[in-house]
What does this fold into?
Amino acid sequence: MKDRTAVNHNIRKHFNELIYNTARYTEIALSIVIIIVIALSGLRLILTTAGTSIMDMDTSFFTSFLSQALSLVVGVEFVKMLCRHSAQTVVEVLLFATARQMVVEHLDPVQTLIGIIGIAILFAVRKYLMTDSDDMTPHQKSASEESSKKAFSSECK
It folds into this structure.
């Protein structure tokens, strides 16, 4: 009976690892696709801007440009979140997405106030509630990072 339980446990463990690895590789593949789309969109944004005469660059052009550029920034932050798996990157994505929404969309005063409060809460969470141990993946500092940090702190004294 114990052998059967051990076999079931090993099968379940192997199956869970398979699912986890499949999900991880799917995240990597999606990140690559998103990066390609971001690069192509960035190229399109540059070409569109370069092909527009200065006389056509009015406020609607600037609003459209800003919307597209900030969308690319949010996309890059999203890819970082997929790759890093830390609470810090989640907060950064939320900050950029909220800031983009506030800058690009011309919201009424109540919605703008809600956005400002949301950003303030995210900054407070990042400053007061998050620690280095909030990372979901272990991050070890290299010896060169430690030595440069010590050298910098000794120069500042």
The two ends are 67 Å apart (CA to CA).
